[in-house]
Design a protein that fits this description.
heterodimer, A: 11 helices, B: 0% strand
Chain lengths: 328, 221
């Protein structure tokens, strides 16, 4: 879930009855004290399993997320935007590299993770199953989808697993530049011609429902695992993350003179929480399960890249290969 | 006194080559054989597009249109690039061999241009040659590794070399104002560049079982 994690897969059995109670108590005490868990430390199987799943989904979201924006590199308007977009999408692929490495510290190889992505066994952020029709869609993604990701990632950077937290610290620093770039692109559209404003508004209208889905199902229908919160694997509820995003970005969208396609959207000044029309969770489930506008295309691109690149990876593993060290 | 038309002709050719190959390289983003190569090709794409931008700025100072207009608003037949850079990416071996052949030439070209009589171009060449050093380092390492790894990788690289050598030699097509360019000490000429390029290509090739044709027998595209 692009750093959200565990929002649609429930724990069937926690398996804690098989863990050594003494070690488990020490482990929980360390987390309680705010210590980080490192790869060689003792950890319960459930912790390991949930973290692999979460970091892996996050990594997949980064490489699949490179695709809708990547298609805009060759068509980006002008040198300035093109160079910035290239660097931004490159960052996303770099994030995947960092995250796969973090997940590998828990015992699952990058190859296994990518196989599971291609076979549909593991998920990625739902929002990348929607198409970026226009340049304005690409601006929306760079500003607001990245903003949503930062909300999730900043929360998770305070989690308990050391390698994931450190990867997230680096990722958040880079994402903050993406956010500035995206905001700048949207401001440019907002202050441009009538046609540019219309394009941007149309993109906001298109992307708002998936943006609301981005943080995962409502707390009302999503069963929280108290244990994952206690172990600092999951750092906030889906509704909390969504509320934080709305609080930070709805005023900024309105400030630019755009509307948001939800007539019930308003901040309740008494509770301090945002009210909105309940997102269509049936659509969310349908898209997650493979029936979105671009699911097949996204996985097909990834599958093709893997198949066409196999000979290169095999050549690197060839026993007779003589490796050549760089000169500098 | 530098002949401005001859200078512009040379810069257009170089800028267009960098711009087009930068776009081709960028198409590997999200599609590479391994993540590290997505990232490497994206870095090279950014360098190349950035280099073309700087070259178009020099053209702008010489009286041509602004870089965005010149780069993105011309029709296909107004471009001066070589055919090598515009060929579709194909498989990884094809893109890698093109990258090797082209960047080996560019690294030498910009080294030579550090002596250019047009000071802004000489200064830019000094900056660009530093970036290209990493491009050739990347290409050489991969050619040496894949060029002697498995039967499949060697034969793929050989096929791409056979297909691309005529296009690569096409990069050295002399300008219609070549004599003027050399006389004005703008650039030492495509002929001299080609000679050095052939030597550099042979050095890397000699570390692999790959074969090269007799360059003098190749008909350039």
């Amino acid at each position: 879930m692009y750093g959200g994690g565990n929002t649609f897969e429930h724990i069937k059995s926690n398996g804690l009855e098989n863990e050594d109670p003494e070690k488990l108590a020490q482990f929980e005490a360390r987390i309680e004290r705010g210590e980080k868990i490192e790869p060689n430390d003792w950890m319960p199987q459930l912790y390991r399993k949930q973290l692999i799943r979460m970091i892996e989904q996050h990594a997949h979201s980064e490489i699949i997320g490179a695709l809708p924006e990547g298609t805009w590199i060759t068509r980006a308007p002008g040198f300035k935007r093109k160079l910035a977009l290239m660097a931004k999408v490159q960052d996303e692929v770099g994030h995947a590299q960092l995250l796969y490495s973090a997940a590998e510290t828990l015992g699952k190889s990058r190859e296994q993770m990518i196989d599971d992505l291609i076979n549909g066994k593991s998920k990625y952020s739902n929002i990348f199953n929607y198409p970026a029709f226009t340049w304005a869609d690409s601006c929306f993604i760079s500003w607001l989808v990245d903003a949503g990701a930062i909300v999730n990632q900043l929360a998770n950077a305070r989690g308990s697993y050391g390698p994931y937290c450190r990867a997230l610290d680096r990722i958040c620093a880079e994402e903050s530049f993406h956010l500035k770039y995206g905001h700048h692109c949207v401001i440019h559209m907002a202050t441009g011609t009538e046609k540019q404003r219309e394009m941007m508004q149309a993109a906001i209208n298109r992307w708002w429902p998936p943006m609301m889905h981005f943080f995962g199902p409502s707390d009302k229908i999503s069963v929280h695992s108290e244990i994952l919160m206690r172990w600092k694997v999951k750092m906030g509820s889906n509704d909390d993350m969504r509320n934080q995003f709305l609080d930070m970005y709805v005023p900024k969208i309105w400030e630019l003179g755009f509307t948001i396609p939800d007539e019930n959207l308003r901040k309740n000044e008494v509770t301090g929480r945002w009210e909105y029309t309940e997102p269509d969770w049936e659509e969310f489930k349908r898209v997650i399960n493979g029936d979105g506008p671009c699911n097949k295309e996204r996985l097909a691109v990834r599958r093709t890249a893997e198949e066409r690149g196999r000979w290169v990876r095999e050549a690197l593993l060839a026993p007779k290969t003589e490796y050549v060290a760089p000169l500098a | 006194m530098t002949n401005t038309e001859a200078l512009k002709e040379l810069i257009y050719k170089m800028a267009d080559d960098q711009l087009i190959l930068g776009h081709r390289n960028s198409e590997w983003t999200g599609f590479g054989p391994l993540l590290e190569e997505d990232i490497a090709f994206s870095s090279m794409a950014q360098d190349k597009v950035g280099q073309s931008y700087a070259l178009y700025q020099i053209l702008n100072d010489l009286g041509e249109g602004d870089p965005d207009t010149v780069a993105f608003m011309r029709n296909a037949d107004q471009f001066h690039n070589s055919q090598l850079v515009e060929l579709p990416n194909g498989e990884y071996d094809f893109s890698l061999v093109r990258h090797f052949l082209f960047d080996t030439a560019e690294a030498i070209r910009f080294q030579m241009l550090t002596n250019c009589s047009h000071e802004p171009l000489a200064q830019l060449a000094n900056k660009i040659k530093g970036e290209l050093r990493y491009h050739t380092m990347h290409a050489d390492i991969w050619i040496k590794q894949l060029g002697r790894a498995t039967e499949e990788s060697v034969s793929k690289l050989q096929d791409s070399l056979d297909r691309l050598i005529p296009y690569a030699i096409g990069v050295f097509e002399p300008s219609p104002m070549e004599d003027q360019i050399i006389e004005d000490k703008i650039f030492e000429g495509e002929g001299k560049l080609r000679q050095q390029w052939e030597e550099a290509i042979l050095v890397v090739k000699s570390k692999t079982p790959l074969n090269l044709p007799y360059f003098s027998l190749v008909k350039p595209v």
